[in-house]
Amino acid sequence: MSPAVTRTLPNILITGTPGTGKSSLSRDLAERTGFEWLELSKLAKDWSCLSGFDEEYQSSVLDEDKLLDTLEPKMTNGGKIIDYHGCDFFPERWFDIVFVLRTDNTILYDRLQERGYTGKKLTENIECEIFQTLLEEAKSSYDEEIVHELPSNSQADATSNADRVVSWIEQWKKDNVK
Ligand SMILES: Nc1ncnc2c1ncn2[C@@H]1O[C@H](COP(=O)(O)OP(=O)(O)OP(=O)(O)O)[C@@H](O)[C@H]1O
């Protein structure tokens, strides 16, 4: 962490292809740690940070600048978990650690289908996971040392991932809060 940053708790970014389990892990972590979970795909709507609707992908288009301006003051003191299926537009200085959730293609396919995804939306999300797009995006946007892949295929993975993040937070406090 840069010496200029004076957070008393770390900020955590959880990213990955849609359906890999970002919300589930973030919700669990927020309950266990008291950190504030910022679920950006929902908050962007609440904060009027959408700039339109993409008919082809049937999804909203983010007003990134407005969203970042809204988030900036919230990130100062730390203790935030941000969950989003993209990671290259946040300021690097915001995060102390970045987790990229990974799910096997066949498992992810079933999860997304169950959610009603079909056609191009389904195929492109599976391709996003196959080409490890979010992992590459995270590695090129943050110091590789703070980017960690977490398997998210099963309930056992979910439990061990949450345990791992909680342990990491405890260690961060020991190392950073005097
Ligand atoms: N580790 C896991 N093992 C089994 N099922 C899981 C796991 N993680 C999440 N799930 C299930 O997969 C589905 C998608 O999870 P979730 O909504 O948390 O994903 P997401 O990455 O937040 O998706 P989005 O980016 O679209 O919000 C849910 O039904 C959830 O219960």
UniProtKB/TrEMBL annotation:
Gene Ontology CC entries for this record: cytoplasm; nucleus
UniProt region (NMPbind), positions on chain: 39-62
EC nos: 2.7.4.3
Cell compartments where the protein resides: Cytoplasm; Nucleus
Top-level taxonomic group: Eukaryota
Name recorded for this polypeptide: Adenylate kinase isoenzyme 6 homolog
Record region (LID): 114-124
Keyword Transcription regulation: no
Annotated function: Broad-specificity nucleoside monophosphate (NMP) kinase that catalyzes the reversible transfer of the terminal phosphate group between nucleoside triphosphates and monophosphates. Has also ATPase activity. Involved in the late cytoplasmic maturation steps of the 40S ribosomal particles, specifically 18S rRNA maturation. While NMP activity is not required for ribosome maturation, ATPase activity is. Associates transiently with small ribosomal subunit protein uS11. ATP hydrolysis breaks the interaction with uS11.
Organism expressing this protein natively: Megalurothrips usitatus
